[in-house]
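PROTOCOL LOG
Step 1. Enter all chains and additional molecules of the complex.
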Amino acid sequence: MEFVITLNRGSSLPLYRQICEELRRLILSGYLLPGQRIPSSRALAKSCKVSRATVNLSYEELLSEGYLKSSHGAGTFVNDQIPKTFIQSTDPTHQLTQAKQIKLSKYGTHIAKSKPFRPIEQHLPINFLYRQPAFDQLSLQQWGRLLVHHCQFNLKLLDYGNDLLGYRELRKAISLHLTQSRGLRCEADQVLIVNGSQQALDLVTRILCDSGDWVGMENPGYLNAHHTFLAQGSRVLPVPVDESGIVIEHLLGFTNAKLRFVYVTPSHQFPSGRVMSLSRRLELLSWAQSSGAMIIEDDYDSAYSYGNQSIPPLQELDKSGAVIYIGTFSKELFPALQIGYLVLPKHLVNVFANAKCLTDLQSPLLEQQVLTDFINEGHLERHIKRIRNLYYQRRQTLVQALSMYLGECATILDENAGMHLMVHLQTSLNDEEIIHRASQVGVGLISAAQNYSNASYEGKFIIGYTDLTVQQIQEGIYKLAKVLKEPTTYTDIFRYSVDLQESACSCKK
Amino acid sequence: MEFVITLNRGSSLPLYRQICEELRRLILSGYLLPGQRIPSSRALAKSCKVSRATVNLSYEELLSEGYLKSSHGAGTFVNDQIPKTFIQSTDPTHQLTQAKQIKLSKYGTHIAKSKPFRPIEQHLPINFLYRQPAFDQLSLQQWGRLLVHHCQFNLKLLDYGNDLLGYRELRKAISLHLTQSRGLRCEADQVLIVNGSQQALDLVTRILCDSGDWVGMENPGYLNAHHTFLAQGSRVLPVPVDESGIVIEHLLGFTNAKLRFVYVTPSHQFPSGRVMSLSRRLELLSWAQSSGAMIIEDDYDSAYSYGNQSIPPLQELDKSGAVIYIGTFSKELFPALQIGYLVLPKHLVNVFANAKCLTDLQSPLLEQQVLTDFINEGHLERHIKRIRNLYYQRRQTLVQALSMYLGECATILDENAGMHLMVHLQTSLNDEEIIHRASQVGVGLISAAQNYSNASYEGKFIIGYTDLTVQQIQEGIYKLAKVLKEPTTYTDIFRYSVDLQESACSCKK
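Step 2. Run joint prediction.
Step 3. Record the structure below.
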């Protein structure tokens, strides 16, 4: 066994006494075990940079004290006769003690009690999840080419970034991209690069909310935002949503002393799918101006609007610096990329940049560089155009299939946008039973019930379609319709698949 | 101009009245400007999916009310005679008002007042920065090859990860890597992947500390840790460091009710560079066990130990679940990668995983996969071995150059480890003057004064050497020595460079 004893050469205590003390401590703490061989005096002298005579002096003292024993020719050992009570216990019962003692913060206590925040995903053949982009449409060769290019020819960019807001060329590209695709004008220095929209939400909450403060959010709304607000100790005011978006009447009377911000998803309300009307947007901004509260605009899947309408984002309509805009590339490219951004009012840029730095220094740089080129070389725009058409086709298929197989049992609630739609299924079954029956025939569904602040919203489902083929969508809805109408048996399932082949042709685009 | 008015078809209010209300609101809010042309009744009818007659009815009402005016043949316009006071002001003075109203959280208020947290880096020819790995030694072709491989053949891995702790194969690889390189045994399910050690620090602080709680840290210590603790509202107890590491006497008497955790850098104390002795480690653990406080072990540059000694990490010595271990690949590979990890006591895994999920969902996945292969294929080990030798050589050069050019004016404080060393320069000059003179001859230096809790530590400098060549190190210290001895003039600088060429040979390895 090799070890080093650190000596304090400025101390008034002689070196041999220091060695004695250290060895006693190592033995009593249980690090050196009874019967264990210790280094030869030559070896210890060398590693401690003292003379061998000094070490010999120490060993002699410890031998005389009974800490060590010597076996002629075999070396020096820790005395195996040292009473066990001398030796500090490190038995496993301590682990339990420590675990019980640990005091978590309020934040820690809250999230320790929570269930994991991601939905448990069943691996079913046809899964109507609402957040999967069609990865297979991405030009990964381009992405790979850019990755290699940057990691081979840009050595300095492997370093820490020197820009607290994120890679500047990316911020410029995003600013331009937002103007062209969303009519949102901002300067590159209002853009802060973060790890996806979740980090944006977390930063906003930490910076604007103390424990006990109120925040408003749409009801129904985005579950992870709700969790984020609660973890920070905020109290959440659920604000109803109607055809035009969040209902402002419920916000009147609140000032920023009471309500620090309102979190909204105007481009495609999550999960109802509705688009906030222009006048509702103006009304919300007017309320924010008079109340002093901030508006957090989460534009998570705004790239996919299939109608002609193009309503400016709140951030663009706002003249008062009341809007923080959150964008992400998870829906436009792929989620594992984990690059999102905030567009901030100028007076908040500094505090957000500092917070990002203390949170995780910076987002990984290599993929920021790749994304910059991907945008600037036009790949992103072409990619979005291509998948927007594809998603539109898949969405139309879903709408037709719902109408054909479920008829009046299914009411689609949302507008012509986004990567999912919300459907109200009118049956005698509760949500759990619907999900169970669907899974029996290999179809995955997600209920919207958990997105409501109260539990009385049975029958609403968030149906994603973006990563399913036209055939899968038809088959999935067909199977769903069958199991909703009658109890399922395995014989039924076989019959359905025969039925399906016959009926599939009739609704193919 | 195109826009859509959202109508509520379930409302008792007739559609034409709804259109009137919306248009009035758009005009009064200033979105439609006086004199602006509005869509033709045909266009609006189409976009709102109502009959043209309905729109005509609305327009007639608004014309009669004076909101609109019609110019025969030219279209319909917003009346430019509407009193400006009717129209909601959106002038820029509001921006100021809103900025003043915004109330930040305690966290936000603290960091808004702070200066940016990264040192301002001067671009000087020879910069003794303390955190730059030698990027040019990294096998970037391997890295690039793995990047391309994963992003082309692993489509499903572009998705959201399904593991709250991070990519499981990487966690297994890290667990094995830690056993082999650090003698640290842990299970893959104790490892949480985070964005570099800064995110680890932030998570630890949020989960263990409420505002007002005390935490201990080494004095001198790591500045960003200090900022992180303060931003969370913690009070920081600076604990002195001696030759063996943090001095336990200063912790005695504190329990976890008073002191939530102690943050230490045992492998290579930052910035003094000392290695915590084995017995001090055991003493610290014993204190933690009795006090109930946690120990946060930041092992930031442990890969680079140049002596024979290999003291087990606190995490390995600990039997009571009191240690949270922080590791990073920023120093072993490259900082832009931004992958770090925590090794957690088992009873804290769940709360940290939830916190990571709410903070930013997950760390980017593609580079987690690449890193996994890079470790498993042995590239990491080979890379570390290669640059450890290189750093050793550069370190020796630095030590020799300090001794040769500065002699007794320079005292090296630390042990034989890490990526920097700390030097005490005994001159009549203050730190600012030393830095200024050095920069005049193109040499960058960082004072350690800001790493001390009190300001009386002049003359200590953190000198990094890992990204400088042997020649640069010699030249840098030579130039430093010259300017410390006499006032600098430009003539002097020319003279030095002649001197240098003569003397460089004598200290070349």
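Step 4. Note key features.
DSSP finds 17 helices and 16 strands in chain A.
The mean pLDDT of chain A is 84.
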